[in-house]
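Help!! Second protein's tokens look totally different from the first
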Amino acid sequence: MPRRGVVRAGISLPEDLMEAIDILAKRKGYKSRSQAIGEAIRVLTAEDQWESYEGEFYAVISFVYDHEVADTANRLIEAEHRHTGKIISTMHIHIDERNCLEISVVKGDRSTIEGVQRDIAAAKGVKILKVNTFKV
């Protein structure tokens, strides 16, 4: 989203929330409290767009799986091939002797991204899966 300028706004927050924002801003290296609050608002609005918008998104689907579990690796490869043209990039990392981390970038509308997510999650050895979406 192109930056158009800055508008000054005042907000009232509970003291503990303001302290949490200050701690987060310092820990994450934000230059100001306003920058941290602005980033939080961007994340919230991106989630809202995902829930309500029907256009095109990019998604990063990250998942850890045990490649020793019943044909998991082959099922994941089949899922990726079913979504050729939708999965635009993949990175594979060997965590240890059994576990792999895979990161796939998907481009498409909400139903496309959810379809890829479902196919990956359906593979038996998938332990954890996270999806981050971006409306550009």
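Here's the second one for comparison:
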Amino acid sequence: MRILRNHTQRSDAQWIPCPIDPSHSVLEENLQSHLNRCPLLKQAQSLSCQPFYQKGINAGREDEEEGGEEMDVAPKDSIFTSEMKRSAVYAMSAPKFLELIAKIKSVHASICNSIPDSFRIPEACSIWTNREVDKKLPYQEKHVLQQASILGNLEEFGVLRKASLISNATTEQCDSNKESERDADVSAVVEFGAGRGYLTQMLADCYGIKKVLLVERKSYKLKADRSLRQKESLELERLRIDIEDLNLNAVESLQGVGYMAIGKHLCGPATDVTLRCCIRQRSNENTDAQSQASCYLRGLAIATCCHHLCQWKNYISNSTETIILLHL
């Protein structure tokens, strides 16, 4: 009996991540031909020519410390996959496993007990929480409340202000000089890991933000972009790029602009690379003109997830003062 080729089972070892876009795999034997016709090849080539593209600028290193010294914590270039972590846990004896759990609970208690819950639903988001938005927009109560709470906490900290207050402040400051403009309200929003962009949709609907930059490495259908572009006063830009490779200071539309960074569900190391992207210190070689042209962070709110995907390579706070090692 003859079995068709596409029905034969293949070993997982024959499949490797595509070097152009690791989100999909290709047969190792077909790699060279695939590289010439990968649908994302043209997009990758176009991206590499953009001034804001800088490969690995926010990636971090295992040997990196705040003072620039090397640390003997993990092997260089080490990547620990979820499968490797599972294998390490399964290989433990029962006493060792219970010891690990006890240490994790102890560390969590010493660090996280002082972190309060803060669930805020601001009045400004009532058009969403009361379902008064366009019926064509997707609505899931769980996501709406999560998004509203992110914005509510930003309002609580004074980073966000209601659209009416922003409008009045803008009128009063129209004749202000450059220095006072740097102390004005947030004039732009950058959403990292934007996905379809509905956190920004709520922000634009409820707070009157005028400039939006969506950063997302994947392509999505049913995005909020169409609805956002219908707002005549809104300037919208979407960058399809990995946050790890984004030099935010080189984005033309953000030059000299105070911005707020937001993100919902920044999986694993995406939180760390986002923080690097936003607060990466400027080089000492920068001229005064370059410093003036750089964008500047006015506030930040990130909802993290998928902590099991975190890697030491990307961890932003890997100085000796903040490390707690679980010796086994």
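Reply: Different proteins will give different token patterns, so don't panic. Residues 82-115 form one domain.
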